Predict the 3D structure of the following.
Amino acid sequence: MGSTLSPNDLYRLPWTLPDNAISWLEPTSMCNLYCDGCYRKNESNAHKSLEVVRQELDTFNRLRKTDGVSIAGGDPLVHPQIEKIVEMVASDGQKPIINTNGLALTMEKLKALKNAGVAGFTFHIDSGQNRPHMKGKTEFELNDLRLHYAEMLAEVGGISCAFNATVYDHTLRDVPLIVEWGQKHIDIVNILVFIAYRAAPVHHGYNYYVGGKQIDMTPIAYAVEKERKAPIMSTDIVEMIRTKYPDFMPSAYLNSTERPDHFKWLLTLRMGTKDRIYGYVGPKFMEIGQTLHHLMHGSYLAYTLPKTLHQGRRMLLGSPLDRGLARIASAYLHHALRSPLVLFKKLHLQTVMAIQPADFMENGALGMCDGCPDITVYDNKLVWSCRMEELINFGDWVRAVPDNGQ
Ligand code: SF4
């Protein structure tokens, strides 16, 4: 599919290595599932102690401004001291966001995490996970499971609710079904994230090096012998969503370290009710939001509290500053003139994100997310979480070098 997006029409998120919206903490690499495309080797009882977690948080605090901390893994809910870890992040003045498959989440656990200060959950749910009792379920059928977790969070209240799904070439066509489901539950679902499947194909015609030493890539969890079809791009996800929502329009992005016109994180904010989407905010709205948050809190904005996201009507006051908001206001007022009852419904804001992880370039370089939000700590340094297995296995980053037939 072709892309109709130009970086010049969107806001380049201001996130950098030392000053970002999010950081990525991995308190364990143990997981209770084996998902296709996972970047981490699943290791039993690989829980970090609270002391190590403290050290990693201190490294973030020393080297990087951050608004939210994604607590990931493995699955963080299998860590026996997860409540304490959430408390540690919250007491540093950051928003703890749990990235989980949800399997280990009970109502009791959720309430304990809320008491510990959890700000949000991102549930990873898709058809590539080999979930017990869910084998063979389509993305559409998994919407019931998504709703189960969204309703759990809504019952407890005050916690941001996000879902992410890895998108494979055979599930790309299902993305609009999830986006449509998200609209039906826009009052309790705040964020939808679609992550294009990536692995590190061991390409013929390339040799792999760490420093000057040639290595064998196969022990790496994300190395695959055979490449799938052409990799899905974030713009393919947008084009697919447009088959259902033709005016779907992103407002902000992060580019690739190798290509300014590759959208690694492509962010869309839509405003509407369960029955109707009135439109999409524009780049100025994003710029104002990020800048004001930085001025007021010293870091860029990651997760917005649900109560703010339900204040759509108040945000429309910013219409003179943003063309997207002005279009939303116009569509909303026209509708209200015909059906005044809509004035009694809340207007919600919902994020739809498309992420395009590392891209293999022809010269062997890897296009990474410029201003990577999922930076983690390894050996007291800030590193890409999606490539940490290279450090674990080889002590440094792997470079692919074309062998040029020699
Ligand atoms: S560079 Fe890797 S870790 Fe960072 S945001 Fe992109 S995919 Fe995630």
User: Anything to note?
Assistant: The two ends are 36 Å apart (CA to CA).
